[in-house]
């Protein structure tokens, strides 16, 4: 599905970074960033332009090819890894920041990935997440068509156990991120930190 979506010359979700990422970027610790399900690279490339060392992982080689093309056009470098998140080794205390922007997975895999993210963050590291909530099905402006693949504040509070939330909020906002995230959407935003021992 994703290779098919990304095969066009047009960037499916645009080439500009996510609004929430821009809003909280100044709070993120400098260092190594992992972008989950990064697709065509809009967030990874922008973070690289802000001085972060960025690794973008996605299951679509077509998307990552476009991510590298965008990085070249913007004069930055990113590391891309083609992998399914079910198999990708996030590592232990490896990352200063993990970014999950509209990374919608089946529930069991999502819970597993989120716990691996907690382990994968260094002490003082942060996880940034934005995703659609179940109410998004009423808007039809993007996201998966299945309620079980959506997230909300309560589920994230449980799934990211081990992190302290600096921001955790559900809201309705306008998104203008390419063709596939366009219009009013119901979303959850989270910024959480791994406590220093």
Automatic annotation (TrEMBL):
It comes from the Bacteria. SUPFAM superfamilies: S-adenosyl-L-methionine-dependent methyltransferases. Residues 33-125 form the Methyltransferase domain. This is SAM-dependent methyltransferase. GO terms for molecular function: methyltransferase activity. PANTHER family: PUTATIVE (AFU_ORTHOLOGUE AFUA_2G14390)-RELATED (PTHR43861:SF3), TRANS-ACONITATE 2-METHYLTRANSFERASE-RELATED (PTHR43861). InterPro entries: Methyltransf_25, SAM-dependent_MTases_sf. Keywords: Methyltransferase, Transferase. Pfam families: Methyltransf_25. The lineage of its organism: Bacteria, Pseudomonadati, Pseudomonadota, Gammaproteobacteria, Oceanospirillales. One of its GO terms (biological process) is methylation. The keyword Transferase applies.
């Amino acid at each position: 599905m994703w290779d098919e979506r990304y095969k066009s010359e047009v960037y499916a979700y645009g080439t500009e970074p996510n609004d929430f990422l821009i809003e909280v970027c100044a709070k993120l610790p400098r260092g190594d960033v992992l972008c989950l399900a990064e697709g065509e690279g809009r967030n990874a490339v922008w973070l690289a332009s802000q001085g972060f060392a960025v690794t973008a992982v996605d299951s679509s080689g077509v998307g990552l090819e476009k991510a590298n093309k965008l990085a070249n056009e913007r004069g930055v470098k990113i590391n891309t890894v083609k992998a399914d998140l079910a198999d990708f080794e996030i590592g232990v205390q490896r990352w200063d920041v993990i970014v999950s922007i509209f990374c919608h997975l089946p529930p069991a895999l999502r819970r597993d990935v989120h716990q691996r993210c907690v382990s994968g963050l260094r002490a003082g590291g942060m996880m940034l997440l934005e995703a659609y909530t179940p109410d998004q099905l009423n808007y039809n402006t993007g996201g998966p068509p299945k309620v079980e693949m959506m997230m909300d504040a309560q589920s994230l509070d449980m799934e990211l156990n081990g992190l302290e939330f600096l921001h955790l909020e559900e809201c309705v906002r306008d998104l203008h991120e390419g063709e596939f995230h366009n219009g009013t959407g119901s979303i959850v935003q989270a910024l959480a930190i791994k406590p220093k021992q």
